[in-house]
């Protein structure tokens, strides 16, 4: 079924390389290529540009930095997105689509004020917050949405079963060419990447990423692979992970694992966009031992780059992966993770890169994701096309 061209506004919480921001940019590109008119809104501190260029129009909403004050940072970004949309003219857009809790609250507040008719919200995953205001913001961002989407069946079931939200699944995609065709950058001099083998984890040091347990597993792995190196890449985040990071550093010292250039553990911090595909091509194994993910796009990206992956044997991963395409490990068991890393290094974990991996990657395309979004946008518009205030 053909749908008319729509003016679509996609909202994300940052200009930095986080999973939800990548999703927003890739979805925007696919919608643009499908003939839709897409504008991407993102808060920006000090005029910082979006980390990756986009064929879509990008509106940077001026925001101020507040250090580790997460509540004030979130409030500032909600206000920034509201102001940016009102300045652009909210009524000019057919669809307003929030990709996270910050932008979801901006649109919920505008909806309550009668400035917009409604909005779409994609839930990637939900977090547990100690701060009651952060919890309330997280809840409102999906509870007040007119249409709720999730990136995996796991979270669709959770939203439906636990919160009574009639969510729909729209899968992520993966840009295969981006991770296959890139020429590996010369990253060795900058970070001292000399591990034999090199274990890569993407996303920084975070409790949700289970980085401490991976560190324990890496120490066990070094008993049989003495020259192994653990590279933890990325990590741009609005949340405060300092306490967890300090625990990681202290534990590394106890284990005799030095952190730094040319050391057993390398922590890169946020990287330029081209660096992640280059690192994945260079890695001997990519670890994805998260305790909670919406989908885990890094797994598909690593497989597209030709790297074997060790993955937590939990949902949502068990919903789309099997032993033909990954090496499973129990995320709460360092010995299991270490065994998974060793298996991945032996004959690439027995992963079927010739048949099973291409079949898996073919199931997840941004083009198909855009097609599904467009159909759901059309349904959404029919539901909200009523006079404001009605």
TrEMBL record:
> What Pfam families does the record point to?
Glyco_transf_4 (PF13439), Glycos_transf_1 (PF00534)
Which Gene3D superfamilies does this UniProt record tie to the protein? Glycogen Phosphorylase B
- Domain named Glycosyl transferase family: residues: 195-348
Instruction: Show where the Glycosyltransferase subfamily 4-like N-terminal domain sits.
Output: 18-178
Q: What are the protein's UniProt keywords? A: Transferase
Keyword Hydrolase (UniProt)? no
Read off the NCBIfam families from this record.
MSMEG_0565_glyc (TIGR04047)
Give the protein name, as stated in the record.
Answer: Glycosyl transferase group 1
According to the UniProt entry, its GO molecular function terms are: glycosyltransferase activity
| Cell membrane found in the keyword field | no
Q: Which taxonomic lineage is given here?
A: Bacteria, Pseudomonadati, Pseudomonadota, Betaproteobacteria, Burkholderiales
The source's superkingdom equals: Bacteria
Q: Please name the InterPro entries in this protein's record.
A: Glyco_trans_1, Glyco_trans_4-like_N, GlycosylTfrase_MSMEG0565
GO BP field: lipopolysaccharide biosynthetic process
